[in-house]
From TrEMBL:
The lineage of its organism: Bacteria, Pseudomonadati, Pseudomonadota, Alphaproteobacteria, Rhodobacterales. This is GFA family protein. Keywords: Lyase, Metal-binding, Zinc. It comes from Paracoccus shanxieyensis. Belongs to the Gfa family. Residues 4-99 form the CENP-V/GFA domain. Coiled coil: none annotated. It holds the Pfam family GFA. Gene3D superfamilies: glutathione-dependent formaldehyde- activating enzyme (gfa). GO terms for molecular function: carbon-sulfur lyase activity; metal ion binding.
Length: 123
């Protein structure tokens, strides 16, 4: 089983994921844009029981971050936990297969060649 590690900028919060993500996507919704301070978020979704967290988290409506450095480290979304790809210790482990909320997508972004959903996923 694949074990991967992720965490915040200062190292106070650490994540361990077990197994492969359920899916990997890019999200252009306003919540993600505001949370990450970026024009989209790249996220890997795992079953909640496949993610272990050590360290103290601060939380705003399920969007969790390190209270010490402010790094966003996960979002609780029903039975899943979304982990930003940038939080993983090793780069280039995952490739997104779709984009969400493309009605909010910046027009200057290149075409990533991914399946696009105008709003949330329909499948």
């Amino acid at each position: 089983m694949e074990i991967r590690h992720a965490g915040c900028l200062c190292g106070a919060v650490r994540l361990t994921t077990r197994g492969n993500p359920v899916r990997i996507g890019l999200c252009h919704c306003m919540d993600c844009r505001k949370q990450y301070g970026a024009v989209f978020a790249a996220l890997a979704m795992f079953p909640a029981d496949a993610v272990t967290v050590t360290g103290k988290l601060a939380d705003h409506q399920g969007r969790c971050f390190c209270p010490r450095c402010g790094s966003p480290v996960l979002t609780r979304n029903g039975p899943e936990i979304e982990v930003p790809l940038g939080a993983f210790d090793s780069p280039d482990q995952f490739a997104p297969s779709y984009e969400l909320w493309t009605i909010r997508r910046e027009s200057w972004l290149p075409d990533f060649g991914l399946r696009q959903h105008r709003r949330d996923r329909q499948d």
